[in-house]
Amino acid sequence: MAEHFEITMIEMDDVKYKNISQCLDGYWEKPWAELPEEQRQAWHLALGPIRGDDDKDGKEWDGRDAKAIIAANYDAVHEPAFTSARLVGWYDFTIDAKTWFDMENIKPKEAAMLMCQISPLDDVDPELIFVDDDKTSPDRYRLLLRVFEDKLSVPPEPRTLKQWRSIAQERGLRYHSWIDEYLQAIGITDDTASDLTATTEAAPELGTKTLNSSKIADIVDDEQDKTLADLFDPVTKESLEKMFPANGKWTTWAEHARANGLIEARKQRRLFNPYLAALWFLQRGVDDWDLARCNRVLAKNLPERSKDEAYKLTGDLK
Fold it and tell me: Is this prediction's pTM over 0.70?
């Protein structure tokens, strides 16, 4: 039987998080007196609020050989990419989350159990189980199941776990928060999220694109998009992380591409079309990113065969 533990997501602005290890890299051997203020503050942060306040004169810094380990431990707990990866890994291990989200036909009882953080594979009676101090209860399970069974008959069609979740949200039903945290971590946005409109600044002839679909195929609906996608060769998730930094989240997103829709940008095993991946990335609603900025980054990363066609992305005719 799977154990039920609650994992708390650390709310943090992914874009603004500064990796402590990277900040201190190159300074490990320098004495405290030579450290710039930014590096001193980073060290105090890694030590923690109590120990950091006690090290204003740098004794902990000058007297330690394992400074890099302290910084790495802090990043492992606080960096958004790491917290997301741990959360995803935990639920993939304890409740087989990835497997269930990849399935195309989840039965009402399976959906109701999963939304109560109970594995349908466990030999348990969901009508007798309370999870995480009443975050889900037998009454909530029974209500979810009854609504799902009713929905199944009108019309009778296969539904994914994400679709069952949408039904629960539409009906205002309560369910365990794990499922929302997991979807957020693997890069799935709510179907009901407000539209994200991205406008190209440098190339007005490219117009505006409304990115409010969970499927790339629904966004790439004209020949111009397909032409732009054809300018690129497939790249790895590591290359996508360099082009569109997300604090390492491209790894988790790529591993769950089938569930979050990124699979439609995947052209070969573990390789993705950068243009289609950029459209998907914009749906995340990442601060300071719009279609114009994505196109400028894409133009700088064109393969040799397409460099003369960069103007198609930027509108900059030379």
Answer: no
